[in-house]
Amino acid sequence: MTRIYNFSAGPSILPREALEEASRELVDYKNSGMSLIEMSHRGKIYDEVHNETIFLLKDILQVPDDYEILFIQGGATLQFAMVPMAFLSPKAKADFILTGHWALKAYEDARLIGQANVVWDGAADKYTRIPDSNEFTLNKDAVYAYICSNETIGGIQWREFPLTGSIPLIVDMSSDIMSRPVDWNKVSMLFAGTQKNLAPAGMALVIMKKEMIEKAAKNLPAYLRYDLHAKEKSLYNTPPTFTVWMTNLTLKWITSIGGLNEIEKRRDEKAAMLYKAIDESNGYYRCPVDRNSRSTMNVVWRMLSEDLENRFLKEALKQGLSGLKGHRSVGGLRASLYNAMPVEGVKVLVDFMQYFMQKNG
Ligand code: PMP
With 0-12 CB in 10 A as exposed, 13-18 as middle and 19+ as buried, what is 354? Predict the structure, then answer.
């Protein structure tokens, strides 16, 4: 079977090695006579996978000992609700930096629970850039500051997270988790839906400081309590065992190719290649995003007309290049260059872009 190059924003391409390993072990997991996804999540075999996954995350992301690693269902979207439920109230304030669709979603949920304060809003520039640190001032009494590390739809990304001093920084890293190291001096909590750089959909990876867990509200329904998830090592209820297992296999793949160093090397090579093709097209392809804010994970661009964009998409698909349609809210084109996308896939895309331009330019 030939796999095509899948540039979809999520669920998205996963490492072939991880998929092959899962398919080899799917029916009879390590000679246990059954599939891992059929067995008890309280048994020894699943427990090993679960704990190893946490270990691998800690190792690859260099997570310090005073942080907890949690698996929580409901994707990143449940975190939009759980974070303010844990830390906000009508009396407590959080500061939001609005960089686009996904930061806005989190802000809208937080507003329902407590004082959600906007300290910077990119609406005037149509969310095409990340602010400089001198463009916003945090409130001294904010219980947290919130950013979205990489706006999957807008195609903009924080190069450096802001310094927030004594105010805990909470970061949505759904679309760039595992593509960069995390500066734990800046980040008190991060979360990420798994369906991009980790696994199939089905949960969020949450990494948070233990002192934040202690501060999180406890007068909530059980599943919404970070302290219970931590106390039960993410086994408060039945976890999405398949997603945890696939996360495990993806992390082993990352380790096998050389860890985050190699991931970053490939990431920069892929992004540079694609942006170069856009920039050198004399406006035939046009990236609407501020240069210093360009995402290395989700590259967005426009063409001269929607008609041309549709033709591009159709022909690209014939060449085995799929998932290049921009999000329905903004249109245009988007290539997601997640970790599992080989450099070769981006070469094929860039060659196709040049061919299409020559033919239709
Ligand atoms: N945050 C970001 C940055 C995203 O890209 C997405 C999904 N594309 C979400 C949050 C929502 O994630 P989920 O679908 O897992 O709830």
Answer: middle
Q: Are 147 and 97 in contact (CB under 8 A)?
A: yes
Mean pLDDT, range 321-326, rounded to an integer:
97
From 8, 77, 197, the mutation candidate for ligand 1 (largest count of ligand atoms within 8 A of CB) is 77
Closest CA to 94 of 140, 161, 127, 162: 140
Domain range summary for the chain, segments of one domain joined by +: 17-255, 259-360
Pocket lining: 148 vs ligand 1, CB cutoff 6 Å: yes
Place of tokens 């979360």: 191
Amino acid at site 350: V
241 lines ligand 1 (CB under 6 A): no
Residue to substitute in 79, 99, 102 for testing ligand 1 pocket (most ligand atoms within 8 angstroms of CB): 102
What would the mean pLDDT of 273-281 be, rounded to a whole number?
Answer: 98
Helix (H) or strand (E) holding 193: strand 187-193
Check if 152 has its Cβ closer than 6 Å to any atom of ligand 1. Answer: yes
Which fold is adopted by the domain 259-360? Aspartate Aminotransferase, domain 1 (3.90.1150)
Confirm or reject: Cβ of 176 under 6 Å from ligand 1: no
Whether 172 is catalytic is yes
Judge whether 301 and 317 are in contact, CB under 8 Å: no
Residue corresponding to tokens 């190291």: 181
Instruction: Say whether 284 sits in a helix, a strand or coil.
Output: coil
Architecture per CATH, 17-255: 3-Layer(aba) Sandwich (3.40)
- Predicted TM-score (pTM) of the model is 0.98
What pLDDT, in 10s, does the model give residues 69-103?
999 999 999 999 999 999 999 999 999 999 999 99
Query: What distance in Å separates the CA atoms of residue 98 and residue 103, rounded to the nearest whole number?
Result: 5
- Whole-angstrom distance, CA of residue 305 vs CA of residue 302: 8
